[in-house]
Amino acid sequence: MLGSKDAIRIDPYFVLPQFYPIFAYREADAPLLCSLASPYIRRLCTIMKKFIQEFKEFALKGNMMDLAIGMIIGSAFTGIVNSLVNDIINPILGIFTGKIDFSNLFLTLDGSHYETLAAAEKAGAAVFKYGSFISNVINFIIMALVVFCIVKFLNKLRRPEPEKPAAPTTKKCPYCMSEISIEATRCPNCTSSLIDVDAKELS
Q1: How many domains would you assign to the chain?
Q2: Strand, coil or helix: what is 182?
Q3: CA–CA gap between residue 188 and residue 179 (Å, rounded)
Q4: Would you say residue 139 lies in a domain?
Q5: Which of 112, 132, 165, 174 has the highest count of CB atoms within 10 angstroms of its CB?
Q6: Largest CA distance in the chain
Q7: What's the main place this protein lives (predicted)?
């Protein structure tokens, strides 16, 4: 009984009626407690198992891993492109443009003159940094070309092999020339027997 001395008493106002037997029981009622709690435990385990499975599919089998790998490779690839532009492309362009440093190409909006962009920024002048814009455009073009070449190469590697022609499923009746099942032994249209015809073809 719940009113006996060996019972654990819980305020029923804080426990739902269907859960009250779980919190107030005697030692002799342990099997009953297990039978009452097992459906809720099984349901909780099922929910947790489903949640873990869905998270595993999302984290490992979805686009999350591809996105993470792409971000890592992209961050490393940006340094390569910047080095290509600054160390190789810009010096070549400098030969044709009189060794102009694109990073120092700027215009001051107030008409004042400064030798370098750093000096103009130090003086607090409003500058139009078109040289930096040109460098960023060059970086973008090179990045787009490299990514295009990589994607084109990967698509060529992933190009599926030509599919083999499917096995025929129909044949022509030699008597009425209608399309029938390849396994037919009698034409459903002209009712001609095809056993002898199939035997001749096999021989």
Answers
A1: 3
A2: coil
A3: 10
A4: yes
A5: 132
A6: 103
A7: membrane
